[in-house]
Amino acid sequence: xxxxxxxxxxxxxxxxxxxxxxxxxxxxxxxxxxxxxxxxxxxxxxxxxxxxxxxxxxxxxxxxxxxxxxxxxxxxxxxxxxxxxxxxxxxxxxxxxxxxxxxxxxxxxxxxxxxxxxxxxxxxxxxxxxx
Length: 131
Description:
Blueprint: H1 3-25, H2 30-40, H3 55-87, H4 91-101, H5 107-119, H6 122-127
Helix pairs in contact: 1-3, 1-5, 2-3, 3-4, 4-5
């Protein structure tokens, strides 16, 4: 096994680890969803919200739901990129996900930078059928 093959194997494993961590912490914005539901159902002070201010509750629900779904989708993409690295498929997808992973500080940043560096090497490109 060459050094590049070993690096791809390790990167694949680390993609699975970061995907698991991302999936673990993705449901945290559900507290915003619960707060939005509380605002809409008068659960905080027992007094109904004025009709023109109810959009705040819906805003909390929409933003919290979008963050949860986005985090879970990104986690699935990370896991698929890890599988693709192990199989030496979908070069462009792996490169794009590595770039997006750089935004997930600190583990995603480290993983993304190392993945981008490794994918730019000529022998690794040859594994994927790219030159």
